[in-house]
Amino acid sequence: MRVLFRKSYLQDIRLFRDGVQAAWYGGFLALALSAPLWLDGYFLDELALVYIYAIAGLGLMILTGFSGQVSFGQAAFVAIGAYAHTILMGRYGLPFVLSLPATALVAGLAGAAVGRVCSRMHGLYLAIATLSVAIVTERLLGGGGAFTGGHRGLPVPEMTILGLAMDDSWKTYLVNLTLFTGAILLTRNLLRTRSGRALIAVRDSEVSARALGVNVAFFKTWAFFLSAAFAGVAGAMLAHAFYYVTPEVFGMNESIRLLLMVVVGGLGTIHGAVFGAFFIVLLPTVLSLIKVWLPAAIAQSGGFDSLIFGLILLVFILFEPDGLYGRWQKVHHFFSVFPMYKKRGFQRQKTFLKTERLR
Amino acid sequence: MELLTIADVLQLLLVGLSQGCLYSLIAIGLVLVYKATEQVNFAQGEFMMMGAFVGYQFIVLMGLPYWLGVGLTLIVMGAFGYGIDALVVRRLTGQPVFTVFILTLALGIALRAVAGMIWGFGNYTLPAPIPGNLKIGPVVMAWSSILAILLTALISVGLYAFFRFSRHGAAMLALSQNQLAAFYMGIPVKRLTSVIWAMSAVFGACAGLLLAPITLVSTSMGFIGFKAFAGAIVGGFGSIPGAVAGCLLIGVTEPFFDIAFPTMKGIGAYLVMFAVLLIRPQGLLAQIHAKKV
């Protein structure tokens, strides 16, 4: 077990805790950069998809994990991003390097508008309001006529960055990796700034945040803006990965899937978004490998995948509410204090309902 | 768009009313659970779907007489709701609301998959409780829609009387305010909570059986539950009269919206909800109050 000596306050907001941690993450980055050398095309595309989902997940993490605003509508902003990017590139001929920031801005502004409207809502009301944003957005895109291509959708133009055609798996992989690393650094940096701390204060107690002089409505809107901008970038990259955008891909179910993704990963942590993305992208692949060993009657039935997905979620919520990252922390703790690990250390407190509804 | 005649308007109003009553039946189940335990059941639509499928099993596949099948369905669904609380949801008592959101969402996904694996993912027909239509002048009304309206009215009045006059109703109200205090007063908190879940599943099953002749039985019929959510929110979540009023409002405006904007079919409910929430963020009959600093 390493002991950290605190010598200055700046130590609390350093990017990495110490050299060892920096070395670990540097190693991971090197591993990810070299992936095209030792992974074949299919798995490389899957890994790129993990990064895209992780970007969307990071956005949702800012909103739900750090600012405590439950959002069932993240897919709406992914959809807005995908469509904005496709239309800007395909119809108005904007180059990729301009279209991507513009897309982030468009999606972010849409998110800020929703956030401003929803800034007075809480809990369930917010959940249903954002859910209906997802449903309404899907319907509007479907009914948008020639502008959005209706239910038939739009073809996505080829990705070319500064004249370089991104026509190979490893090229798009590296683009996604760059964006993913950027998203992580942005999120990590956000948490080290004043506005990031304000977001967390809003999550932990709106009343005390307001008492400390945090402009709650502004920071809720800010969280929605950031989260939607991340989602927009993820949507743009997703559009390139799918070659074709249709409204159905970004429906309500996708929103719920994204939310469940960050929950499985571990709510309120950057690691959680990444772990969750690995889970949600690789689960179908793993399941199709398992299916070979199962009797055909179960494996061939259409509900098998979603049944397993639902059951895994149930198990996580009941037994490991901190998600994959929480489990990892426990394992890590077990070894770092070995043999002094106590199960009690992580036990959930027993609580009873005391309503806030009635005064 | 040509102008609607008075008969058309009446017809749409009645259709909307019966649809709104079906939403209310789902919403009543939601609000009951919320009132008692502050848990939000996102799987209520799936409870309704399960009710329709269990009814399909008894009435169509096993060929039982209609009303016997309905009785058995309600019993099975009651036991199902009781079991869901006793085995799964109870473990999360007192945890943050968000945890239960996720739990019930996951439950909904699992239930849809299970129903699909047992009965298949197609569309199935279930006979209407009372076949035929009632004609009053130019307006035509299916008997099952009338039944839906009557049943909703009956359940609303019954629940009002239950909470107002019965000992168990009072116990449930106590439970909803403070579980620990209710427990100290000798109220069997666990059992009562499960009974409330059973009641909510039974109301869901009623809605499913009434909805089945209209929309067909399928695994995706549970998505109507989200419209019931919208209705309950319009009314102010946590109040039964509010939920019924909200669902009726949404049900009645929906057919008119669909006729006015055919390309935007199906989102009228959510737009109405947004409009209401913009003006009153706590719904029409507010149940949650912002903390004063």
How would you characterize the overall build of this protein?
Chain A has 15 helices and four strands. Chain A has helices spanning 19-33, 35-38, 41-66, 74-90, 96-118, 123-142, 169-191, 194-204, 206-211, 216-242, 252-265, 270-290, 296-299, 304-319, 323-336, and strands at residues 154-155, 160-161, 164-165, 244-245. With 293 residues, chain B is an all-alpha fold. Chain B is 71% helix and 3% strand. Chain B has helices at 6-37, 44-61, 66-87, 97-119, 143-165, 167-177, 179-184, 189-215, 224-235, 240-260, 268-279; strands at residues 133-136, 139-142. A two-stranded antiparallel sheet of chain B has the order 1-2. In chain B, helix 1 (6-37) packs across helix 6 and helix 3 (66-87) crosses helix 8. The longest helix of chain B has 32 residues, at 6-37. The model of chain B has no long low-confidence stretch (mean pLDDT 86).
Total of helices of chain A: 15
The helix/strand series of chain B, from N terminus to C terminus, equals HHHHEEHHHHHHH
Total strands of chain B: the figure is: 2
CATH topology tier name of chain A: ABC transporter involved in vitamin B12 uptake, BtuC
What helical percentage do the residues of chain A reach?
55-70%
Beta fraction of chain A = under 5%
How big is the Rg of chain B?
19 Å
Please state how the strands of the largest beta sheet of chain A are arranged side by side: 1-4
Strands ordered across the widest β-sheet of chain B? 1-2
Flag low-confidence runs of chain B.
Answer: none
Oligomer: heterodimer
Main location (chain A): membrane
Pfam families (chain A): BPD_transp_2 (PF02653)
Keywords (chain A): Cell membrane, Membrane, Transmembrane, Transmembrane helix
Transmembrane segments (chain A): 21-39, 51-84, 96-117, 173-191, 222-246, 258-281, 293-319
